C-alpha cells in the first residue's frame, strides 16, 4: 500500500471487506491503524455496486456465500478497473474473468 501511495495510485477498501476483517479480540486495532494512515479510503457499497455484484453472482449461478467477493470485484469495476489484492484469489478471478481491467493478485 505504501508503494501505491508513493506513486499516487489510489487504494480503496470496500466497506463490505471490513465486515470480514473486524473480529474484535485485539485485531480491530491493526485494521484501524492501516485505515488511519491516510493511504486508503473506504468505499461504501451503494446501489450501483450492489447491482453489479448481484449480476456477477447471477452470471456464475453463485449464492450469497460469495457476496463480499462479488462486491469487491464490483467496486473495482465501478471505479474503472484496478488491482485487487487477496489471500484467496480463486473466486475473485472467476468473478472478474470478463473484466480485463480488473486484475486479481495473490498476496
Task: Produce the secondary structure layout.
Elements: H1 2-6, E1 11-14, H2 15-21, H3 28-35, E2 40-43, H4 47-60, H5 67-78, E3 82-86, H6 89-96, E4 102-106
Parallel strand pairs: 1-2, 3-4
Describe this entry's structure for a reader.
With 107 residues, this protein is an alpha/beta fold. The chain has one domain. Helices cover 50% and strands 17% of the residues. The protein contains 6 helices and 4 strands. It has helices at residues 2-6, 15-21, 28-35, 47-60, 67-78, 89-96, and strands at 11-14, 40-43, 82-86, 102-106. A two-stranded parallel ribbon has the order 1-2. Helix 6 (89-96) links the parallel strand 3 and strand 4. Helix 5 (67-78) packs across helix 6. The radius of gyration is 14 Å and the shape is globular. The mean pLDDT is 93.
Summary tags:
alpha/beta; two-stranded parallel ribbon; 107 residues
Question: What is the structure about, briefly put?
Answer:
The protein is α/β, with parallel strands linked by helices. The chain has helices at residues 2-6, 15-21, 28-35, 47-60, 67-78, 89-96; strands spanning 11-14, 40-43, 82-86, 102-106.
The percent range for helix content is 40-55%
Rg (CA only): 14 Å
**Count of domains:** 1
N-to-C terminal Cα separation, in Å? 12 Å
Amount of beta strand? 15-25%
Low-confidence stretches are none
The SSE order reads: HEHHEHHEHE
Largest sheet: 2 strands, parallel
Shape: globular
**Class of secondary structure makeup:** alpha/beta
Number of continuous helical runs: 6
Strand order of the largest sheet: 1-2
Mean pLDDT: 93
What is the strand tally?
A: 4
Amino acid at each position: 500500500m505504501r508503494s501505491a501511495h508513493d506513486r499516487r495510485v489510489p487504494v480503496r477498501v470496500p466497506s463490505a471487506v471490513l465486515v470480514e476483517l473486524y473480529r474484535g479480540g485485539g485485531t480491530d486495532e491493526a485494521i484501524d491503524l492501516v485505515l488511519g494512515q491516510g493511504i486508503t479510503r473506504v468505499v461504501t457499497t451503494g446501489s450501483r455496486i450492489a447491482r453489479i455484484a448481484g449480476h456477477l453472482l447471477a452470471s456464475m449461478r453463485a449464492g450469497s456465500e460469495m457476496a463480499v467477493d462479488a462486491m469487491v470485484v464490483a467496486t473495482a469495476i465501478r471505479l474503472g478497473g484496478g488491482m485487487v489484492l487477496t489471500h484467496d484469489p480463486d473466486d475473485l478471478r472467476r468473478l472478474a474473468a470478463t473484466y480485463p481491467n480488473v486484475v486479481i493478485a495473490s498476496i
